[in-house]
Amino acid sequence: MLELKGLTIRQDDFSLQADAQFGAGFTTLIGPSGGGKSTLLDTIAGFITPSAGQVFWNGENITGLAPAKRPVSILFQDNNLFPHLTITANLALALTMKRPTEQQRSVIDRALREVGLDGMGNRKPAELSGGQQGRAALARVLLQDRPLMLLDEPFAALGPALRAEMLALVARLAGQKGIAVIMVSHAPEDALRVAEETSVVADGRVTVPQPTASLFDDPPDSLRAYLGT
Amino acid sequence: MAQRAVAVIPALIVAGLVIGPVMAVIWRAGGLGALGAAEYSALWFTIWQAAVSAAISVLLAVPVARALSRRRFPGRGVLIALLGAPFILPTIVAVLGLLAVFGGNGLVNTLTGALGLPRMDIYGYHGVILAHVFFNLPLATRLILQGWLAIPAERFRLAASLDAPIGRVLERPMLARIAPGAFAVIFVICLTSFAVALTLGGGPKATTVELAIYQAFKFDFDLGKAATLALVQLALGIAAALVLLVLSPPGGFGTGLDRVIGRWGGQSRGARIMDAGWIALAALFLLTPLAMIVLAGLPGIVSLPSEVWSAALRSLWVALGATALTLALALPLATKLGELAGILGVAVSGLVLGTGLFLIVQPFVRPAEAALPVTLMVNALMALPFALRILRPELEATRADYGRLAQTLGISGWALWRIVLLPRLRRPLGFAAGLTAALSMGDLGVIALFADGEHATLPLQVYRLMGSYRMEAAQGAALLLLAMSLGLFWAMDRGGRANA
Prior knowledge:
The structure holds two protein chains of two kinds.
Chain A: E1 2-11, E2 14-22, E3 26-30, H1 37-45, E4 52-57, E5 60-61, E6 72-75, H2 87-92, H3 102-114, H4 130-144, E7 148-152, H5 160-177, E8 180-185, H6 188-194, E9 197-202, E10 205-206, E11 210-211, H7 212-217, H8 221-227
Parallel strand pairs in A: 2-10, 3-8, 3-9, 6-7, 7-8
Antiparallel strand pairs in A: 1-2, 1-4, 4-5, 9-10, 9-11
Helix pairs in contact in A: 3-4, 4-5
Chain B: H1 2-28, H2 37-70, H3 76-82, H4 91-102, H5 107-114, H6 125-149, H7 153-162, H8 166-191, H9 195-200, H10 209-218, H11 223-246, H12 269-301, H13 306-333, H14 336-347, H15 350-361, H16 367-408, H17 414-424, H18 426-442, H19 446-450, H20 458-467, H21 471-497
């Protein structure tokens, strides 16, 4: 379980406050652009140091840890794969900085099969379609084997059908492996489709996550303003 | 902490390599009070020839750049690419080419002689300025062409729809913005020009400070006087670096100059003929000397004396060593702070460094023994600012794009260089390596202070052959030098592009 205690993030004249707990399932952060969704994700991932407050994972304070030392993996909006490396070499970086062993190679091949990229390990990212690149990146974070996965709109560039397909795949694989997911999104239909809970990030605050369906049935003012209803 | 040490150690090396010789110069120099009339006249000539060379280059570049910006013709792309060539063209090669055109027995004098007109003498201040314009007209043209192409097409459309005079509303403001920077860069380049003054200048009316340093070494063997002159050159360099900081020029390695801007105006018959004339004149002025080098060099290259080949081999080693050293220093220094260290390379000329290093090594070894290592080091330092300028933007872009991905994967330290940064930087690394190798290959500067016959580099060997009036051998060796410089640049730049 992820817990944000008295968290304050300040950047220039922007500030965001968070006091919330995120459960084991799939949680969406929704809200207007510029509202601080990605900033919150970056803070959880360790790229931004909060000016006050702490981040706890299962009761352990992880506020000061380097990104790679956290129980966290993250998919960015873009640049999730190194373009000069093959897919296999990209995935291997989740396991080792050296040449992967035979055993690690078979683990990588299995991960590729799981995301439907069987036999594509020798290609460079540019030789894959957008959807396939998303799958490869997903395989990479699954191999990192962290209990919390952060998604910073990684599939935003995909069409609606492909995006729904990718989200379903993430939800299925994360569910199977018992990985908690926090996803940034500005699309209510994405949240309704996959997220058990949703939190609104707007007006400098992060609301406590609510069950997604009931939240959208009876939106609070901040969400109502964003949705325009 | 290790990360910081990686950047601090090269910074200290660079600072030490620059400050050590400068301290030696200051310590040995008799103070500015020791300046005589000859030194003052060298200082005066250095400044005014640089100002005149820069002014002529920029003034001529304006119509050429305008013509190139608005005309499309076969060979335009090649011509624009060739505008980048003088940067890696060895000075001594260009001088031989200019001599073949404007020299005593050159094309121009043959022509004027046949018509019974007075002969032209290239030696003297006008030869120095001619060579400087030859080198810097292309640079000025590129900078100003960039300014023209940076005017958005929409502005030309807007001006056309308002029937506004393009020259007054668009072009003159652009020139007012770009031209001072272009002038400043060329002025600074000409302040430290040594090889041109060495070969075409000389005498009381055409001696630059750097040439005076050399003469103090070679003819008077007066180290105190050389150090005093080096101090003058150092002051000039610092002043010039400050000028550059104020009049910051636009980036010099711009790509995408192939575009022709869609525009209105300038379509009259007269304008077309004018533009064609400017382009033809510029091409003739720039290409004829190059063509002459190839033509004149071919007969000599088959029978080159053996000392030319051994000098070529030495030059190759110096160029490769300088390239390795420059890249080793540039990669960790490619930060804002590092570029400040690189500015030292602008402020301190090669001959000043050479003088200081000479003073330092002279009590311990015969200077000729140190000639090649010193040349290698000075070449590396001189190329460092260019390498930093090429690498830093790419390095910062790579860090911005992939830094977070590397962080979440825990890739840091040497692994970050090996897995992410070096592979991503292959193209700019190849380009920077090619420039450094070509610059070092063609450099005729500090080596002239140190070397004897057994330690000469190829450019120095060419100069010696010229000095002993063996023109055919000199031209053959110059062609070899040209081929090696361009070949090194091509091979390294290409190596960075392959499979990237």
